[in-house]
Design brief:
The structure is a single chain. Strand 2 and strand 3 (89-94) form a beta hairpin. The longest helix has 21 residues, at 4-24. It contains five helices and twelve strands. The chain is α/β, with parallel strands linked by helices. The chain has a single domain (4-196), classed as Rossmann fold. The strands form three sheets. The chain has a seven-stranded mixed β-sheet. Strands 8-7-10 form a three-stranded mixed β-sheet. Strands 4-5 form a two-stranded antiparallel sheet.
């Protein structure tokens, strides 16, 4: 078994690698990939039948899920977005078009007055990533926000990223949450029950 320090060093190296790939991805390529990823997400039976879906508002370089948030909300689906409320702590608030405010790190998020969404009621959670593994592994930004959140919800976990950020596996530690589905602009990969990985 590898030492935790070795895994942490490998993660740091991989984060540098995939941040560089993200910076080299042109806005046009990202916009096209985002549209294709949104189409693939909408085609997932779990999303099509969901009553409550957790999405994220994109930071520069991330997959743009805004059209999906708007279409789901217009169809009456509860769309939750994260709001940073403390160290490794996210609140989950209902997306209401036109009612987002800038939070920590420049994230656009529902304000404190937005209705709270209980993570236990979510059917699907779509998470950002610097890189994804075909085995359901995910390389995030290192803050641990999503790992803590995903441990508290029974929802299907879906990771999204451009195909250049898809590899066989990314380095993981025991606390790292696994994904049930991985989606890029070219593939939808079902990796099974994340609890069994």
């Amino acid at each position: 078994m590898r030492e935790a320090s070795d895994v942490a060093a490998e993660k740091a190296a991989q984060r540098r690698r995939f941040r560089a790939i993200r910076e080299e991805t042109s806005p046009d390529v990202l916009a096209r990939a985002s549209r294709q990823i949104v189409g693939r997400l909408g085609a997932l039976p779990e999303v099509a039948s969901a009553r409550a879906v957790h999405l994220f508002w994109p930071l520069p370089g991330e997959v743009d899920l805004r059209p999906l948030a708007e279409s789901l909300a217009a169809a009456g689906v509860v769309v939750a977005l994260p709001a940073v409320v403390g160290p490794r702590a996210l609140a989950h608030r209902r997306f209401q078009p036109g009612r987002l405010a800038e939070g920590q790190w420049g994230l656009m998020e529902p304000g404190p007055g937005a209705p709270a969404v209980d993570p236990a009621t979510l059917d699907v959670v779509v998470v950002p990533a610097l890189a994804l593994g075909r085995d359901g592994s995910r390389l995030g930004y290192g803050g641990g926000f999503y790992d803590a959140f995903l441990a508290a919800t029974p929802a299907l976990r879906v990771g999204v990223a451009v195909s250049a950020a898809l590899v066989a596996a990314v380095p993981t530690e025991p606390h790292d949450a696994r994904l049930g589905v991985v989606v890029t602009e070219t593939e939808t990969i079902r990796v099974g029950d994340p609890g069994s990985l």
